[in-house]
């Protein structure tokens, strides 16, 4: 039981921070940052939804949103948006399911097997969340790196060159955390499923055995005269 609680809390810890990292990564503006910031007076960051410029001296930030979600954007941007939103939804629902499956939460307290299955479902959802999260963030980062490397290889300088920023790193960290928490909740908690099921059936059989034994003992201790009187009373009542 102690190891089961430990795995639940470790999975809860990683699931909470992983879902938070994915959501923050999706809705922040630093997926790409200018690589030549030492020569610039401002820091330029691009996110999935807008682009922001921060002045190095006074810290004033100005952001420009992209025209529209339906406007023509690059395939990289559109697919990364879709994959990160999917990862956000799956990790969020997985975390909520995990909260309901914790033994310390008073939800279905008399149904340990159901709560264990809820934890398994939460683990599967977190594993599924990690897949689009890591795909979107790594693909975006690799695409930025390849684009920058090709420009440098051909000696092309367009004024601003980008590298992947902290939002992209946060997406990778959140996705790896989802894989870790999902693995704990599915692989390790599955071992406790068999144990809990065996304990449940043994406890049920034990209670049934006690009930049958109590009935037999009660009948054995009843006097024969009392039993005969009871039968006669039952016959008279029916008549």
From TrEMBL:
Pfam families: PMP22_Claudin (PF00822). It catalyses: Rb(+)(in) = Rb(+)(out); Ca(2+)(in) = Ca(2+)(out); Mg(2+)(in) = Mg(2+)(out); Cs(+)(in) = Cs(+)(out). It is a multi-pass membrane protein. InterPro entries: Claudin (IPR006187), Claudin16 (IPR003927), Claudin_CS (IPR017974), PMP22/EMP/MP20/Claudin (IPR004031). GO terms for molecular function: structural molecule activity. The chain crosses the membrane at residues 7-27, 120-142, 169-192. It is found in: Cell junction, Tight junction; Cell membrane. Keywords: Cell junction, Cell membrane, Ion transport, Magnesium, Membrane, Tight junction, Transmembrane, Transmembrane helix, Transport. GO terms for cellular component: bicellular tight junction; plasma membrane. GO terms for biological process: monoatomic ion transport; paracellular transport. Belongs to the claudin family. Claudins function as major constituents of the tight junction complexes that regulate the permeability of epithelia. Forms paracellular channels: coassembles with CLDN19 into tight junction strands with cation-selective channels through the strands, conveying epithelial permeability in a process known as paracellular tight junction permeability. Involved in the maintenance of ion gradients along the nephron. In the thick ascending limb (TAL) of Henle's loop, facilitates sodium paracellular permeability from the interstitial compartment to the lumen, contributing to the lumen-positive transepithelial potential that drives paracellular magnesium and calcium reabsorption. This is Claudin. It comes from Motacilla alba (White wagtail). The lineage of its organism: Eukaryota, Metazoa, Chordata, Craniata, Vertebrata.
């Amino acid at each position: 039981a102690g190891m089961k609680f430990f795995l639940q809390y470790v999975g809860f810890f990683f699931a909470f921070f992983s879902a938070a990292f994915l959501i923050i990564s999706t809705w922040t503006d630093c997926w790409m940052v200018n690589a030549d910031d030492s020569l610039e007076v401002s820091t330029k960051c691009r996110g999935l939804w807008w682009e922001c410029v921060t002045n190095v001296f006074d810290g004033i930030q100005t952001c420009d949103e992209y025209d529209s979600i339906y406007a023509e954007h690059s395939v990289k941007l559109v697919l990364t948006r879709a994959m990160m939103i999917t990862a956000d939804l799956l990790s969020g629902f997985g975390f909520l399911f995990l909260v309901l499956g914790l033994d310390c939460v008073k939800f279905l307290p008399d149904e340990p097997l159901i709560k264990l299955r809820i934890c398994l479902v939460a683990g599967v959802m977190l594993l599924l969340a990690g897949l689009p999260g890591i795909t979107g963030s790594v693909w975006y980062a690799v695409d930025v790196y390849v684009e920058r490397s090709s420009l440098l290889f051909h000696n092309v300088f367009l004024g601003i060159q980008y590298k992947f920023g902290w939002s992209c790193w946060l997406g990778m960290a959140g996705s790896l955390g989802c894989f870790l928490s999902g693995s704990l909740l599915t692989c390790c908690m599955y071992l406790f499923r068999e144990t809990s099921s065996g304990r449940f059936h043994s406890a049920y059989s034990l209670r049934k055995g006690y009930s049958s034994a109590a009935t037999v003992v009660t009948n054995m201790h009843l006097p024969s005269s009392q039993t005969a009187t009871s039968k006669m009373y039952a016959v008279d009542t029916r008549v």
